[in-house]
């Protein structure tokens, strides 16, 4: 059965012609009537996918430890804005704050928290889940709304949800990949009618059919983060699934009920995302005068922070050690060729100046 958004997109194409991938992406997630974040419950067992903080509270605990070390290495700034972009249900922030409060109450005392969220529905859920921290937490639509001040910023599975463009190599040059309808009024992929000269790709070995992905939205987001850090000082940590080196290929995907779904099948009722190009994010950060502390696989990052020490400590005092161990294995991975989050997800850390941050000072990083 076609979704209401499916019908709306078909009508839009009938009136105006093909739409771009990024237009489709935005409609699927953010349409004011039928968008995914407007109508669906994305997160957790009852949603469409599970994020790292939903798998184990230890993930948030490790990020809290990272932030504590970063605060110390930055010289104990006396006023800190802790920003989270795309905070989901607030689960990660809850674990982070609980851990900081327990380990370094002096750090907790000087924090002011800012959640960057556009969905009124998710804001309501976040406020409920974080109610214990009351007036310490603020909600903003964009990073520009956060008051000046030294900044720690977290973005976990934020960049993958920002719209992308796709370009196809043809015998007649590069053309933008589009969304069209066939004679049965079904959504299908197509290509633009006119060849284009941009975007410039760093790859030389082209052949027809190859797909290049770009994301002006992601470029803009990392630029905003960089500008904030350069102006106010601080460190940002970006965690997402993607690749350490730029490449060609179609990574657009939809997830519905914890299973992959054809991207054009259920617009508005499936989560839409694509792989993040961490080399691109790093390059933009460098151009904006940021220092790259490290860019590594999530599993390596967590291991170097000491996640297994925490796990073995908890296992001594629980009768659910097997469940705990399984959840952390999902986060870390057990081999270099597995499909765990530890291998697929990457961690990028950037700062406004060169600073030795744990775990990068004691870990062989990429």
Automatic annotation (TrEMBL):
The organism's place on the tree of life at top rank: Bacteria
BP-aspect Gene Ontology terms: methylation
Keywords, sorted A to Z: Methyltransferase, Transferase
UniProt xrefs under InterPro entries: NDUFAF7 (IPR003788), NDUFAF7_sf (IPR038375), SAM-dependent_MTases_sf (IPR029063)
An example molecular function term from Gene Ontology annotations: protein-arginine omega-N symmetric methyltransferase activity
PANTHER family, per database record: PROTEIN ARGININE METHYLTRANSFERASE NDUFAF7, MITOCHONDRIAL (PTHR12049)
Protein name as catalogued: TetR family transcriptional regulator
């Amino acid at each position: 059965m076609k979704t209401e958004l499916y019908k709306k997109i078909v009508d839009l194409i009938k009136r105006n012609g093909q739409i771009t991938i990024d237009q489709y992406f935005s409609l699927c997630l953010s349409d004011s009537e039928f968008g995914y974040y407007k109508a669906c419950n994305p997160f957790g067992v009852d949603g469409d996918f599970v994020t790292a903080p939903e798998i184990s509270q230890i993930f948030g605990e490790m990020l809290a430890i990272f932030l504590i070390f970063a605060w110390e290495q930055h010289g104990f700034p006396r006023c800190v804005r802790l920003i989270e972009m795309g905070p989901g249900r607030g689960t990660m922030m809850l674990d982070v704050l609980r851990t900081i409060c327990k380990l370094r109450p002096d750090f907790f005392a000087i924090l002011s928290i800012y959640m960057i969220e556009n969905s009124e529905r998710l804001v309501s859920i976040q406020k409920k889940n974080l109610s214990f921290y009351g007036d310490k937490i603020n909600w903003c639509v964009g990073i520009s709304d956060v008051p000046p001040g030294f900044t720690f910023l977290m973005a976990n599975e934020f960049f993958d949800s920002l719209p992308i463009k796709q370009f196809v190599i043809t015998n007649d040059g590069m053309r933008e990949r589009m969304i069209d309808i066939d004679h049965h009024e079904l959504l299908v992929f197509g290509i633009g009618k006119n060849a284009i000269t941009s975007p410039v790709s760093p790859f030389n070995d082209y052949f027809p059919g190859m797909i290049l992905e770009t994301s002006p939205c992601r470029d803009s987001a990392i630029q905003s983060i960089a500008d904030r850090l350069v102006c106010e000082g601080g460190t940002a940590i970006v965690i997402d699934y993607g690749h350490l080196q730029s490449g060609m290929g179609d990574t657009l995907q939809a997830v519905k009920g914890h299973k992959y779904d054809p991207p054009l099948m259920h617009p508005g009722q499936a989560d839409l995302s694509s792989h993040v190009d961490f080399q691109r994010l790093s390059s933009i950060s460098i151009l904006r005068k940021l220092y790259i502390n490290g860019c590594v696989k999530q599993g390596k990052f967590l291991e170097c922070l000491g996640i297994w020490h925490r796990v073995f400590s908890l296992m001594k005092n629980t009768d659910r050690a097997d469940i705990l161990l399984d959840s952390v294995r999902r986060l870390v991975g057990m081999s270099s060729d597995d499909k765990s989050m530890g291998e697929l997800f990457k961690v990028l850390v950037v700062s406004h100046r060169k600073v030795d941050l744990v775990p990068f000072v004691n870990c062989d990083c990429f």
